[in-house]
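We now fix the convention by which a protein and its fold are recorded. Here is one such record, which you should read through line by line:

>
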Amino acid sequence: MDTIKLEVQKRDKTVRVKDLRAQSLIPIEYYGRGVENQSFQADYQTFRRVFRKTGGNTLIDLVIDGKDSDISVLVHNVDFHPVTDDIIHVEFANVIMGEAITTSVPLEFVGISPAVKELGGTFGAHLNEVEVKCLPRDLIHSIEVSIESLVDFHASIRVSDLIVPDTVEIVTNPEDSVAAVSAPREEEEEVVAETVAGEEGEGAEAGEEGEGAEAGEKKEEGSE
């Protein structure tokens, strides 16, 4: 698969994180099995642009202090400021090219559902991503999911219906629901209304029978 390069610099830990952020720099921690932990920093806007392209499931090749390196990583974690939503801290996980990795891959819904277009239903995605396992070079950026099979309100798409290359294994439960189309609210309300009306009708009939019996009893009492 394609990789994206990111320029980073080795971080001087004597510099406070607060001062780094004031210079529009993001602190980055790099770690993984069999490697020495390292601290880097990257330009805020540069990393933001790269992260928008890669997310957590595209390999990033690090360019350290202006030189290409043999370090390939995945974005393992990104922390955001609770108020401004700015990126404040990043963690990179080392990738060993010959060993399988497990990560999340987003789902990309395509096409038009007949149940939406012709029956007025509402499309609902139950999953936005699935877990996959594969070698780093076989990692895919997303999985296309055609919703054209959703022809009515009984149809659904499950994880087992997803199509991926043979080199990629989906780890998520194959029986999990991915997407479906729900009936228009009007139809749901009609069904509820009919059910309520039926119950009220049965109650009314029962009430009439009770009133009739009571009236009969009073009549007999009056005759006496």
Notes: Helices lie at 17-22, 44-54, 114-117, 185-223. Residues 78 and 151 are 39 Å apart (CA to CA). The chain has two domains: 4-96, 102-185. The chain has a mean pLDDT of 87.
